[in-house]
User: What shape does this take?
Amino acid sequence: MQDLLLLDSAEKELLLKILETYNSSTDLTAFIVDPNGDPIIMNKNPLESCRFCKVIRENPQARKRCSEAYARAGKLAATMGEPYIFRCPAGLVEWATPILYKGQHLGTIICGQILMWEPEDFFWIELSIMNK
Assistant: This one.
């Protein structure tokens, strides 16, 4: 697995502190996934801090769809060379920022798990359809 092996432990620790500071100051969740969409580098599972994501990810199929969405978003962001805004399989808005080194996609910073507006009745209907 190509999970930011090019970073030494001090760089990884600095990156972790930056992400934790960002998370606490914005009340959002930012974390790093490998090219397969699986979380890396964090001290705790960042997807457990979002109560909504925690419920969704209790289902193994939903967890797999989540990782696949992160992998796809990371690849698209790396191809474009800039952040990519997307909607996760459970209906939340997130954005992916690629981590590139010498043209190689090493991972992706994922941030978000936000709703753009207060949920309406249609959101709950759509959510139940998307997450059967």
Observations:
- The chain has a mean pLDDT of 82.
